[in-house]
Amino acid sequence: MKNLHMSKTSEGFTHQNFQKKVSGGFTLMELLVSISIMAIIAGIGIFNYRTYGQIVEVDRLANEVILTLREAQVYATSVKEFQPGTDNFYGKYAVHFHDNEYIFRAFQNTSTSTDIAYPVPSGITRLFYETPIAAPETAEFTVYFEKSKLTPTITRTSPPLDGYRGELVLKSPNGSVERRICIWTDGRMYISKGPSCQ
């Protein structure tokens, strides 16, 4: 009995041989679908990378402009010496905006200034608001900071006129990315991603 049981058991093992199915690789249809999916993903990635690059560039420029304005404000309100050892604390600093650059101005006296120009690669749109009611004008303007007061003065260049707000519209070359630099006479200066500073 024992030998018979063992023969059945060994015979059972010989009948349970599992064969592995060998894969023959991708079919032509599977390969075409895979390539199509990869091409779509790559296209989306390249498009998003270009958009991201433009966002970074416009944000960088907006931050540089805001930092320049803050620098002028701090120099004026902290009564920074015009040049080391000169004992000249006239304390008037300004940032002037026009077509393809903005200029940081340090005034030595009422008529003499030292200028540092910063080019703007894509150009800027300058909006000057004289009053809350009046429509904005596209005009060059200057933001002045003086030691006698903490808030800036915003002045249109030609003809000279003081306003209550200035806006700089920065756009990417293809116009898909836009930032606004908002400058108010009450001292607020910030970057807006919206269509207005309001």
What distinguishing features does this structure have?
198 residues; alpha+beta; 6-stranded antiparallel sheet; 5-stranded antiparallel sheet; 2 helices; elongated
| Largest sheet descriptor | 6 strands, antiparallel
| CA gyration radius, whole angstroms | 34 Å
Strand content: 25-35%
Category from helices, strands and their pairing: alpha+beta
Shape: elongated
Helix content: 25-40%
What is the overall pLDDT average?
80
Low-pLDDT runs: 4-11, 13-18
In the sheet with the most strands, the strands line up as 3-2-1-6-7-8
Number of separate helices: 2
Distance between the termini: 99 Å
Number of strands: 11
Would you mind describing this structure in some detail?
Strands 3-2-1-6-7-8 form a 6-stranded antiparallel sheet, covered by helices on one side. A 5-stranded antiparallel sheet has the order 5-4-9-10-11, covered by helices on one side. A hairpin with a 7-residue loop joins strand 4 and strand 5. The chain is elongated. The longest helix has 50 residues, at 28-77. The chain starts with a helix and ends in a 6-residue tail after the last strand. The model is unreliable at 4-11 and 13-18 (pLDDT under 50). With 198 residues, it is α+β, with helices and mostly antiparallel strands. The protein has helices at 2-14, 28-77, and strands at residues 92-98, 101-107, 113-119, 124-129, 137-138, 141-146, 149-156, 161-163, 165-171, 178-184, 189-192. The chain contains 2 helices and 11 strands; from the N terminus they run ααβββββββββββ.
